[in-house]
């Protein structure tokens, strides 16, 4: 019996548990021990650059979380990569989209510099001479999700197991039943299972689904320096690590739980980024991976109280699970302590799906 049982041992679940523990709640994480989306994620912290312009709800959540990230990472001893992002256009159509992104960022009061090709290549010499336009965004960061999970695991009590169903008594959640029949009880249950799901009463479900993403992890034997910033096109991204490794991603495929790494997916990623950074074709291919983003119908996560008393959600973070970890943890820990969701976070209320059947 615990005050709080957090189901899900990824970045979101661990961050929520850490925040709840710091507020004095006896908290345990139920972790399958298997790698989740965090194991594949690049760790970009770019709320306005990555979001579709005009998607104000998710951008606001992302900006709130980005403000909290330096303290969040520092407390865990995890380094932020703060060199920024260079968003690159390869042709006239993409240049027009970059200009719209630049204008949208301006409406949010965010900085960014529009660069002609010569200046873009001066800042990142590995760029191809065919680059048409670039947007330099110094406020974007990145972080290594694997390092975050490792650090969080050292701070949070965990128990191993796979949840099969939510336990209820009347209209209240009382714990979870594991797939081996074991029952774990708690005053309150936080479901932070990402794209996965467990058996929940239909009226209390949220319609989360897996969206497949293929990712490549590359290594430069000569060490870091091919690029210093995250490089984004409209189709893909290249995120540098401090040790000369790079994460190249990611496809978006509605294929359920199909974890196959395909030749077509690898080809598309290499083709799209090598058109702007040709030197990446000389890097070693260390891993080709598949992860599953937790998608929601409106691309906004479910954060906060569910339709059952004692049930809280922290899921559906789409492409922004790493970015939104600090703000999700703060919001859920606040609700556990009796605080309401602030007005700016009400858009993520899980009860907006109370009458929507699971997809």
What's the gist of this structure?
The protein has 359 residues and is α/β, with parallel strands linked by helices. It has helices at 11-22, 37-40, 47-50, 56-76, 92-107, 117-123, 145-153, 263-274, 325-336, and strands spanning 2-7, 27-31, 44-45, 85-89, 113-115, 133-137, 141-142, 158-160, 163-169, 172-178, 183-191, 209-219, 230-232, 237-240, 245-249, 284-295, 302-305, 311-315.
* Percent of sequence in beta strands: 25-35%
User: Which structural class fits the helix and strand makeup?
Assistant: alpha/beta
**Overall pLDDT level:** 94
N to C succession of SSEs = EHEHEHHEHEHEEHEEEEEEEEHEEEH
CA gyration radius, whole angstroms: 21 Å
- Low-confidence parts, pLDDT < 50 over ≥5 residues? none
Helix tally? 9
Biggest pleated-sheet summary:
8 strands, mixed
What share of residues is helical?
A: 25-40%
Distance between the termini: 32 Å
Can you tell me the overall shape? globular
Q: Give the number of DSSP strands.
A: 18
Main traits of this protein?
359 residues; alpha/beta; eight-stranded mixed beta sheet; 18 strands; globular
What would you note in describing this structure?
The longest helix is centred in the N-terminal third of the chain and has 21 residues, at 56-76. Strands 1, 2, 8, 9, 10, 11, 17 and 18 form an eight-stranded mixed beta sheet that branches. The chain has an eight-stranded mixed beta sheet with strand order 5-6-4-13-14-15-12-16. Strands 3-7 form a two-stranded antiparallel ribbon. The model has no long low-confidence stretch (mean pLDDT 94). α1 (11-22) crosses α7 (145-153). A hairpin with a 4-residue loop joins β14 and β15. It is of the alpha/beta class and 359 residues long. The protein is built from nine helices and 18 strands. It starts with a strand and ends in a 23-residue tail after the last helix.
